[in-house]
C-alpha cells in the first residue's frame, strides 16, 4: 500500500494535520484572502479536501463546492464540517489521479500540500491535467503547498509538537538531491509509540510553473502566502495559480 492510501496515517496523525487552529486559519483565509475570492456562485472543485477545512467555508461563502478525497472517514468529517457551517457541498470519494468532469468547474483548489504525493511524475501531472480538463474556459487552478524554497527555510533538526496526552516527534529527510522528502512521525502517548512516514515531491516555483505550463495553463502566477504577498524571501507557502485559456 502507498502511504497516502493508508487511513491509519491520516487518522493517527489527524491531531497534527487537522487541528482546530488549522480549521480556524482556513476559515479566516476563505473570508479574507484575495486569492480565494471568486465570482459569486462559482463552481469550485476542492481536490484532496480531507476533513473539509476549505470545503466548508467555501460552501458557506456561497460557492458550489465539490470536495474529492480518497478516504471516506475524512469525507464524513467534511460532511460534518459543512453541516456545522450551515452549508452544503458535494463530497465524492475518488482518486485525484482519476477524478475529473469536463468543464464542470470555474475554480479548482488543491490546498495544504496535497500535491506531489505520487512516486511517478506522470501521476502528479495527471492531477494537473484532470484539473485543467475539469475547468471551464477562463477557469483557474490554485495550488497551495510547501515548496522547495519555503521548506529549505525551516527544515532542520527533529521537531516535537505537543498533542493532547502526548507528543509527536517529526523528522524530515531530504531525498534524491532535493527532489523529494520523507517526513517521519512518531506519536508518543503513555507507554506507546506509533510511527508512520510519508514521501512527497518538493517542487521549486520554477518546476511547478513548468508543470502548470505542460498541463496547458497560462497566466501562471506565484504568491508567498494566501494574502497574495510576493513569492520572495519572506514567503511562507507557495501559492501557484494558473488559468485555462478561453480558446
Ligand atoms: C494534507 S491533507 C490536506 C487536506 C485538506 N486539503 C486540508 O487543507 O486540510 C491531504 C489529503 O489528500 C488526500 N489524498 C491523498 N491521496 C489522495 C488521492 N490519491 N486521491 C484523493 N485524495 C487523496 C488525503 O486523504 C488527505 O485528506
TrEMBL record:
<keyword id="KW-0489">Methyltransferase</keyword>
<dbReference type="GO" id="GO:0008168">
    <property type="term" value="F:methyltransferase activity"/>
</dbReference>
<dbReference type="InterPro" id="IPR041698">
    <property type="entry name" value="Methyltransf_25"/>
</dbReference>
<dbReference type="Pfam" id="PF13649">
    <property type="entry name" value="Methyltransf_25"/>
</dbReference>
<feature type="domain" description="Methyltransferase">
    <location>
        <begin position="44"/>
        <end position="139"/>
    </location>
</feature>
<keyword id="KW-0808">Transferase</keyword>
<dbReference type="GO" id="GO:0032259">
    <property type="term" value="P:methylation"/>
</dbReference>
<dbReference type="InterPro" id="IPR029063">
    <property type="entry name" value="SAM-dependent_MTases_sf"/>
</dbReference>
<keyword id="KW-0949">S-adenosyl-L-methionine</keyword>
<protein>
    <submittedName>
        <fullName>SAM-dependent methyltransferase</fullName>
    </submittedName>
</protein>
Amino acid at each position: 500500500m502507498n502511504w497516502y492510501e493508508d487511513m491509519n496515517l491520516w487518522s493517527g496523525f489527524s491531531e497534527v494535520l487537522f487541528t482546530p487552529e488549522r480549521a480556524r486559519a482556513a476559515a479566516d483565509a476563505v473570508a479574507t484572502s484575495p486569492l480565494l475570492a471568486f465570482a459569486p456562485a462559482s463552481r469550485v472543485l476542492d481536490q484532496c479536501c480531507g476533513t473539509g477545512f476549505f470545503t466548508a467555508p467555501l460552501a458557506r461563502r456561497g460557492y458550489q463546492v465539490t470536495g474529492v478525497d480518497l478516504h471516506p472517514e475524512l469525507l464524513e468529517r467534511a460532511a460534518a464540517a459543512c453541516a456545522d457551517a450551515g452549508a452544503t457541498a458535494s463530497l465524492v470519494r475518488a482518486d485525484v489521479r482519476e477524478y475529473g468532469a469536463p468543464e464542470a468547474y470555474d475554480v479548482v483548489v488543491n490546498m495544504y500540500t496535497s500535491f506531489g504525493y505520487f512516486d511517478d511524475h506522470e501521476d502528479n501531472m495527471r492531477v494537473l491535467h484532470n484539473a485543467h480538463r475539469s475547468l471551464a474556459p477562463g477557469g483557474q487552478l490554485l495550488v497551495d503547498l510547501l515548496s522547495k524554497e519555503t521548506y529549505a527555510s525551516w527544515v532542520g533538526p527533529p521537531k516535537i509538537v505537543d498533542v493532547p496526552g502526548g507528543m509527536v516527534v517529526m523528522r524530515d529527510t531530504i531525498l534524491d538531491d532535493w527532489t523529494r522528502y520523507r517526513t517521519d512521525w512518531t506519536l508518543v502517548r503513555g507507554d506507546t509509540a506509533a510511527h508512520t512516514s510519508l514521501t512527497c515531491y518538493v517542487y521549486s516555483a520554477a518546476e511547478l510553473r513548468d508543470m502548470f505550463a505542460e498541463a496547458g495553463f497560462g497566466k501562471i502566477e506565484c504568491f508567498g502566502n494566501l494574502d497574495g504577498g510576493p513569492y520572495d524571501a519572506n514567503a511562507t507557502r507557495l501559492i501557484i495559480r494558473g488559468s485555462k485559456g478561453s480558446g
